[in-house]
Amino acid sequence: MTGRPPGSERPTAPPAAPAGHSEPIVQVERVSRRFQVGGEEIWAVRDLSLRIERGVFAALMGRSGSGKTTLLNCIAGLDRPDSGRVYLAGTEITRAPERQLLQMRRHAIGFVFQSFGLLPLLSAYENVEVALRIAGAGLQKRRARTTELLQLVDLHARSDHRPYELSGGEQQRVAIARALANDPSLIVADEPTGELDSGNARAIFDLLRRLAHQRGVTILTATHDRTVLEFADRVDEMADGRLLEHHERDLTVTARNRPAIADEPAPQASPGR
Ligand SMILES: Nc1ncnc2c1ncn2[C@@H]1O[C@H](COP(=O)(O)OP(=O)(O)OP(=O)(O)O)[C@@H](O)[C@H]1O
Ligand SMILES: [Mg+2]
Question: Of 55, 121, 254, 269, which residue is the least packed, with the fewest Cβ within 10 Å?
Answer without folding.
Answer: 269
